[in-house]
Amino acid sequence: MKGVKEYMNLPYNYIINHINDESGSYYYARILEFDGCQTTGETFEEAYSNLKEAMEGWIEAKLEGGYEIPLPIREDNFSGKFVVRIPKSLHYRLSVEAEQEGVSLNQYAVYKLSK
């Protein structure tokens, strides 16, 4: 079983966003894989530092409680393929647009999704 230090060294996905709302201007930070592991900071650096502390506390609490710690989500965990059901009318419209662009429906869908 891994300890806190081993988990802290794994390549987890840190998400830090700059927020401007009724509370003011600050940075909101979270670990994608750890539900509820989040914090804020006045600067990016402070949010990052606070997130490392929050992450350590989150991992410690989960280990003490006997919970499994999720492993990092990595790009190689994905095949690049998923199935989406859409209305026939949308399928038709996308097929016509792809034809007009001279590309396959798959290529056109990737283009539309990447916007």
Could you explain how this protein is built, in words?
- The protein has 115 residues and is an alpha+beta fold.
- The protein has two domains: 4-64, Double Stranded RNA Binding Domain; 79-113, no CATH class.
- The protein has helices at residues 4-8, 44-64, 88-101, 105-113; strands at residues 14-21, 24-31, 38-41.
- The longest helix has 21 residues, at 44-64.
- The model has no long low-confidence stretch (mean pLDDT 93).
Mean pLDDT: 93
Percentage of β-strand residues: 15-25%
CATH architecture type of the largest domain: 2-Layer Sandwich
Instruction: Label the overall shape.
Output: elongated
- Estimated helix fraction: 40-55%
Number of spatially distinct domains: 2
Structural class: alpha+beta
Largest sheet: spatial strand order = 1-2-3
Q: How far is it from the N-terminal to the C-terminal residue, by CA? A: 42 Å
Largest sheet: 3 strands, antiparallel
Would you state the CATH class of the largest domain? Alpha Beta
CATH topology of the largest domain: Double Stranded RNA Binding Domain
Q: Count of helical segments? A: 4
**Sequence stretches where pLDDT stays below 50 over 5 or more residues:** none
Order of helices and strands: HEEEHHH
Any idea what the radius of gyration is?
21 Å
Short description:
The chain has 115 residues and is α+β, with helices and mostly antiparallel strands.
Layout: helices, strands, pairs:
Elements: H1 4-8, E1 14-21, E2 24-31, E3 38-41, H2 44-64, H3 88-101, H4 105-113
Antiparallel strand pairs: 1-2, 2-3
Helix pairs in contact: 3-4
